[in-house]
Fold these 2 entries.
Entry 1:
Amino acid sequence: MSASATMTPPLIAVHSEVLGAMSVAADQVVELPEGLYGFPTATRFALLPTPREGLYWLQSLDHTALVFLLVDPFPFFANYHVELGEADKARLATTTAEDILVLAIVTMPTAPGGRPSANLHAPLMFNVRAGQGHQSIRPDNAFGIREEFDL
């Protein structure tokens, strides 16, 4: 085994006003060149799995107070599917399904006993191998921006 194969990725110090100070591996950093809708200046993020499978934190590296909870929508929404258009493939620079991770932004309920919702109309798509991503509005999608589910 070569020395480069056994090396761990370098760590980056990240401060989050929500999650606290942490060190993340460089391979957990993703770039969304166009930012997110409503947050065009936030282009660099750490994509961090949570202890619960299928949930992730997306912590902005540009704005310490900006963090999103993301969910893998497919286990929660049986009829949900995403077909990559040519623009998606170009932005992600891959057509290999194993490289692509599709996640939805979660909005937590404001009222006690309410259910969280997921934005299935504009999912986030990541090329996890290249650390690139983008938010894709799905005009052909029957799902909305606040699809309730049980977390």
Entry 2:
Amino acid sequence: MPSRVRPLSAGELAEVLDRIDSAESGGRAAEPNDVRAAVRHFLAVLTQRAPGKSVEVRVPPYAAAQCIEGARHTRGTPPAVVETGAATWLALARGTENFARGVGDGRIRASGERSDLSAYLPLL
């Protein structure tokens, strides 16, 4: 769970994002370990900035995290769920994507109270 994972250092994050950007600009898929590291980093940052257990943010197959104060979830489906792919999550975290636009075009599935993460993004 990313809340137990420390965010990357600034230098580590820069290196990972540079490798991801380089691969994508060259028409290649980024290394899964780099994508996983970046996804987990930004989920960890989100949980630090918005601690709580009322929203579960899922970025399959890489990670999921609970955040934002409110009704605590301990079993089953949490009161609110946000799910998206890694590329969209990284774009949201980096500020190159808009949450409402992602929900509108179906790249982000958000349901439940407090599932709008706009106030917490970007995370850089």
